[in-house]
Predict the structure of EFHD2 protein.
Amino acid sequence: PGSPAGRAGLEGSPGGGRRVFSPAGEFREFSRRQLRDMERLFRQYDAGKDGFIDLMELKLMMEKLGAPQTHLGLKNMIKEVDEDLDSKLSFREFLLIFRKAAAGELQEDSGLHALARLSEIDVSTEGVKGAKSFFEAKVQAIHESSRFEEEIKAEQEEKKKQAEELKQRKAAFKELQSAFKQ
């Protein structure tokens, strides 16, 4: 009933309990559009429509993305984000792939890195270029805006100074003018 991202889903947690999963709440680094794109990709390859991508579905996915993996490679891909140890990917675990990719936590030669890089969802185009560069971009933006504010203040000060000089010149001219009138 519903889609993995469109509704709060129940996910198994490592402790054995169940908890409500809200993609938008937990994965705030991604835009709503990115989450929808990731959900669409997930559903596209969830051939069994059971809310999970199993080994064979992942194999098909990687082949279609042009990065086929060995059986062992596929198992390792799942193992890297399989928090509930059920040997298949839930939507939440699927999102972890993109979080790790954005944070630069995936090895360049790993299958998960290839999946994140080759899928249609390029998280870097949305401004999440990895946690490090994301925060660097934030700091840069703050610096840019404060520099911009400083430039505006400097321009305002310059205008005030020019207005004051003009006022003084007019006053001096009026004094000079009144001296000539007498």
Q: What stands out?
A: The chain has seven helices and four strands.
